Amino acid sequence: MEFKQIEYNDSSDSILKVIQENITIASKMEREITNNRRRQHPKAESKEVPNKIKTPTTPETVQEIKVDEEFEDALACYLEDYQTLSDNFTKRALELVLPTKSDYRYQDIIIRLHLSSLKEIKELSELLTDENNTKEDLEEIKHLIRLENKKIKLLKEISAQKETEKSTDNEKKITIILAPTSTGSIRLLEELKRIPNDFYFQFIEIITSLEKGVLRRVKAFVEIKDFKGIRELRCGDVRIVFKRLSNDKYALITGFVKRNADQAYREHIQHTILDYKQIEEQLKKVSTEEDFLCENEKRVMDLKNILGNKKESKVAKKVGDK
Asked: What is the per-residue pLDDT across 244-253, written as a single tens digit (0 to 9) for each?
């Protein structure tokens, strides 16, 4: 099944017809994914799932709709980056906001991004029929439709590209930037001094995963408007809060061990993020400077050495214990 392309010289009715056909195709693709999941994991369908939405159908029966919260959390992050691509985005820029092809959710996320563009095109196309539109309004609407169609076209190209192709476009290498506090210290390094050694290996796992562009167990702070783009990566009880600075640079804001979700914990996280936002613009500027990047690279190596040494110390202590 392939999506049909929109010709922008066509009438509004023709555009809407193509959009409706594409929505039908997307719905069929989504159903196929659901059926494939059921065939691959037949036993999972019968297991109890803690988070369910119960939808009454008849007085005698209740249909249970399972919600994959981890998938929806990750999707929200990918959607945010996808929907905020700049007007002149490249294929490479789009690749960098997508999951890696080795991610088992890859196809599911690609289809949901397709659907997002189709929905946006449909809504924009409906605006074309507004008689109050000026010539400038119509041009802007058509421009936005072209951008969404460009996303769909490039998504198709990227999806069709074989995993075995060894090109630079397939490689994902993210530069980690250790964000300082407003007073100049590196917050993550300061936080680690108060965290037990037992959790250090989980920090390493998150950082290694992030450097490869693999955002597993990621969650956006969507409930707080001012924290747009702020994400949280999880591994066990460990959390690392980060923000995308550019296509291939992520700022690590802080790290901590989440033991509960009380008010003090939430206030601490909010205070930390607000502190980061004070220096964010300056950090974006210096993150393109060679001297800063060299110094940052040393700090990242120091961070990894600290985590590695602490892990070894923990093992040595256990061996020496009586």
From this structure: 888 789 999 9
